[in-house]
Amino acid sequence: MNSEPADAEGAPPQDLGYAGSVVDKAIEYMTGQNISSIAIASALLGGALGMLARSMSEEAIAGILNNAIASVRNGEFRAMAEMPPIPPHA
């Protein structure tokens, strides 16, 4: 699998879709285990930051986080917030 960061033009790595589907399945599993949304999100965020810390400078990580903050402030996640929560599996 390709584990390279985005190229100079900003194209995502080839395995991004696969990684995303694995994360989606992990979220679905944890939701089915009645793990709270905040616990799931916190664990995923912590894991993502740890992964970035192993491959990027602190300045680069801060840039990513600043872009995420700008996206939140610009309302890019508002549509997601208005979606109904994922129900836990019985």
Give an account of the 3D structure:
The protein is an all-alpha fold. It has one domain (about 15-80). Helix content is about 60%, strand content about 0%. It is built from 4 helices and no strands. The protein has helices at about 15-30, 35-55, 60-75, 80. The longest helix has 17 residues, at about 15-30. The radius of gyration is 15 Å and the shape is globular. The N and C termini lie far apart (about 35 Å). The model has no long low-confidence stretch (mean pLDDT about 85).
Fold blueprint:
Blueprint: H1 16-32, H2 37-53, H3 58-73, H4 78-81
- Number of helical elements: 4
Separation of the first and last Cα atoms: 34 Å
**Could you describe the largest sheet, including whether it forms a barrel?**
none
**Any idea what the shape is?**
globular
Order of helices and strands: HHHH
What's the β-strand tally? 0
Radius of gyration: 15 Å
Strand content: under 5%
| Helical percentage | 55-70%
Mean pLDDT: 85
Q: Which stretches are poorly predicted, pLDDT < 50 over at least 5 residues?
A: none
Total domain units = 1
Classification by helices and strands: mainly alpha
